[in-house]
Amino acid sequence: MNRENQNIEHKRIWKDEYLKWVSGFANAHGGKIYIGVDDDLTVVGVDDLHQQMEDLPNKIINNTGVFPETNHLSIDGKDVIEIVIEPSMMPISYRGVYYYRSGATKQELRGAALHQFLLKKMGVNWEDMPCDGVILDDIDDNAISYFLTHAIDEGRLDPERHNSTKEDVLANLGLLKDGIPTNGAVLLFGKHPQRVFVTSSFKIGRFGVDDSDLLNQDVISGNIIQMTDKIMQVLSDKYLIRPIHYEGFQRKEPLEIPKDALREIIFNSIVHKLQIGTWNQMSIYDDHIQLWNEGVLPEDYTVETLMNKHISKARNPKIAHVFFLAGFIEAWGRGYEKIMREFDKANLKHPTFREEHGGVTAIIPREIFMSIRGGQDPSSANDAKNDAKNDAKNDAKNITERQSKILSLISQNPNITLDAIAEAIGVSSPTIDREIAKMTNLVKRIGSKRGGYWEIIEL
User: Fold this and answer.
1) Residue-level pLDDT at 450
2) Whole-number pLDDT of residue 176
3) Given this model, what pLDDT does residue 376 score?
4) Low-confidence residues in the chain, pLDDT < 70
5) What is the per-residue pLDDT for 110?
6) Per-residue pLDDT at 324
7) What was the pLDDT predicted at 344?
8) Which of 150, 302, 315, 426 is the most interior residue, by most CB within 10 Å?
């Protein structure tokens, strides 16, 4: 006798509430219910065997429409009833409620999950359905052109396709049904997709000491093919830092999170979202970022599956195909490998992923921000300090070429003297002194003029 798993249930006695399990098995991959066996596999047997063998099939048929196979088994000299439920091609409910067997648990399907399940049972994908009330004029020409430009640059579409009409583009992508743009077309290329699908926008929130301390927030709207560009711009301008360093005389301001990896994480969150569900939500804290999208992993997939080579199973195949053609994602499940590689190149901790609240969360450490911040408690930061930091950032953007050279020399040798800087640049020492006096937000002197050293202020 096998232990309970996604296809087996053991019940000491029959109760009519177990009709929910019948619905769950029928809606999933089928299964077996053994009556007269405890959860610990102790065989207790059943009473009134012949009566139950007659009653149980009738109850199942009358309440669910499922025709079970009912067998009498003799185990350890005791009578056991085996009820075999085959997977159903049609959705099966019990008292108007739909259940689904996932792993070793029974789930009640509601809301977006129920909608998706019913469409799947009918052989229909939500993104393929014509969008009611939408016409071709509601599709944005600029979004179409943006897609074609990227797809052609990636070599995934022929250059001659750049002159295609939006009707041809949608038709070739399978996003047009009887002349009507599909739900997927509106999300990808619509002028105002949030008028139809309110939760297709992307929420960003900056939090302080805890989740009740919301400091700032943005909602990024528009079509999803161009949405990641907007998200990255807002993150760069308002939420993430760009510490300055110099490579020779060249000033560098990389984003604190590897840019390509962050884009890949955002692309995956948008593409694999349950599109009829709620918003993608990015929560930014001092020490980490969390990005959650609704939609559980494919059956038999775990977070560990994603970390290794795996077959890509897109929740929204048409949307995923468009993102692939544009060069935003790969078709072979290599996105997570790319993410980890970018973090390795930056010598930063890997992000982690977990399934929770009916979706997937990416947790991205903010090591660079925390190292610059020096572990200061967020509750001790005040508005004056934030304003000073913002002013310093603005000043840093306007330094001259000479000041850039001074910073480069100091970064290479913090003990360098004014005379040595002046000689290297070809000006007088008083000139260097005046230049440094203008750079109080960028560099400071530690100790005396003779025995001290320079320190570049990290922003």
Assistant:
1) 64
2) 96
3) 45
4) 1-5, 332, 375-398, 448-451, 458-459
5) 85
6) 94
7) 95
8) 315
pLDDT of the residue at 449: 67
pLDDT at 280: 97
Query: Given this model, what pLDDT does residue 389 score?
Result: 46
Supply the pLDDT for residue 387.
44
SS (H, E, C) the chain: CCCCECCEEEECCCCHHHHHHHHHHHHCCCEEEEECECCCCCECCCCCHHHHHHHHHHHHHHHHCCCCEEEEEEECCEEEEEEEECCCCCCCEECCEEEEEECCEEEECCHHHHHHHHHHHCCCCHHHCECCCCCHHHECHHHHHHHHHHHHHCCCCCHHHHHCCHHHHHHHCCCEECCEEEHHHHHHHECCHHHCCHHHCEEEEEECCCCCCEEEEEEECCCCCCHHHHHHHHHHHHHCCCCCEEECCEEECCCCCCHHHHHHHHHHHHHCCCCCCCCEEEEECCCEEEEEEECCCCCCCCHHHHHCCCCCCCCCHHHHHHHHHCCCCCCCCCHHHHHHHHHHHCCCCCCEEEEECCEEEEEEECHHHHHHHCCCCHHHCCHHHHHHHHHHHHHHCCCCHHHHHHHHHHHHCCCCCHHHHHHHHCCCHHHHHHHHHCCCCCEEEECCCCCCEEEECCC
